[in-house]
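forwarding from the other thread:

> can someone predict this with iron/sulfur cluster?

sure thing
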Amino acid sequence: MKLILILGDQLSLNIPSLQLASDDDVILMCEVRSEATYVKHHKKKIAFVFSAMRHFAESLRQSGHIVRYTKYTDPENAGSLYDEVARAIADLRATEVIVTEPGEYRLLAEMQGWAERLGVQVQILEDTRFLASHQEFKDWAQGRKQIRMEYFYREMRRKYSVLVDHGGPIGGAWNYDSENRSPPKEGLQVPAPFQDRLDPVTTEVLTLVAEKFPSHFGDLEPFPYAVTQAAALEALRQFVRERLALFGTYQDAMVEGEPWMFHSHIALYLNVGLLEPLECIRAAEQAYHDGHAPLNAVEGFIRQILGWREYVRGIYWLKMPAYKEENYFGASRALPDFYWDGVTQMNCLRQCVLETKQNAYAHHIQRLMVLGNFALLAGIDPQEVNEWYLLVYADAYEWVELPNVHGMVLFADGGVLGSKPYAASGAYIKKMSNYCESCSYKVSAKNGAKACPFNYLYWDFMTRNDGKLRGNPRLGFVYKTLDRMSDEKRNAVSADAARFFTALENHEKV
Ligand code: FAD
Ligand code: DLZ
Ligand code: SF4
């Protein structure tokens, strides 16, 4: 008989390894210390994965499969995927292992050595739950001087005929991003997010996580997330009904006390397989055709899934393992303590860290333009930033996290993923949020102890990295402004930055 290994982010009935299962084959699922602690994942992320795994195992059993499920606390639990596979082979006399490729390079590299170590055949199948295969992305990228999401996205729109009419984009443009940058309006009403009911399985898992992972980051409760395919579908439908219409307009907006805004909060479901990308895309497209949501919202949402999600995955598998080691700016500063406890006078960072801690979620602009922007400007070591993002978000898996952090946020890849770093001063955060209204710093002040640190850190970053960035055509205006700056202003920038970094190094509350 064959042993079919299903990982915690492979909870889809159409996962290729399941397609090869015969009636007498055994499906193995296991909660293991190695996966739960290779980074110290947020407590909510572990609870989500374990509970969703247990529910998926039960649904497999009900559809007639034989499932061997190792709970975290089982006395025989060997603690790692490899050891659990080895134990199952010995117990069951399995002659072959079948697994769908994992989403992280470290695990794929390990699995490629399993056949030899285990002494049985190990088949590693391609994960077909994505909309572009490895080969397709490789073929698309090959021979291009520069790869850019926008062109890849257009091909994907054509391939799946999404918002396409007679070969061209519906509405006449491929991308409506320019309509998706509205700041929040005073008194904006944000709908309540999806909230699932806790069942006995999730309740048991919450107790387990509280007991076994007390030192991990994050608040375990309240736990609102869906843990079954049916509930994840309900969350998707609620998004389409209640939030999608304003998704585009407020995609980049941030409001204190409103962590969820008009986003979909489905990445965690997509990434473990409770939702499929094409069903999310079609649901949004249908809402457009039914007149429930405007084109800027629907196109914007679809671009994230059909464009960005597939594009970052393509880059990950194309560039790993070297991609992870790149550090274009040679950044080496330690991650500040406030990324863990939110203790900082910078209100934007405090809000984003505290929401991350509470929800294992922050929306894209919080991740990119607040948390990421600071890490970029302050020159934080990419390895430390990567580890932080990989462990704090419930939707984080390296194939999607690394290119976003390393490429989009830190420009550590020197421009493979994007054409310029997303560096911004306090003016951007002021425009797109109300964070500055209750901050100890003054966003209008450019220098001095009370000035918003993003303001002088921005110019210090551009000055520090002059040799690496001046030639970038998209930064021409920045360096023109820098060249016109008086010596007095330049000195003030570097003195403020030096003072700030010293305070950071001394673990003072900045
Ligand atoms: P929405 O804003 O509603 O977007 C819809 C969907 O589009 C998301 O669910 C997601 O599947 C997809 N999507 C949107 N933007 C991206 C993107 N840039 N890359 C890939 N998919 C995207 N996304 C993850 O799934 N896992 C991560 O670990 C992750 N880490 C990130 C780290 C940084 C520094 C940044 C800037 C972005 C990261 N993203 C990550 C992308 C994005 O921020 C999240 O997908 C999104 O915030 C999830 O919330 P949502 O489901 O409400 O998304
Ligand atoms: C994220 C995660 C966690 C916390 N725990 C498990 C686990 O115990 N067992 C398992 O099979 N998978 C888990 N996962 C998901 C894996 O880390 C994921 O499959 C790999 O990182 C590859 O994407
Ligand atoms: Fe953030 Fe600066 Fe605004 Fe304070 S003033 S919230 S630090 S951008």
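The chain has three domains: 2-125, 134-191+243-319, 338-505. thats all i got for now
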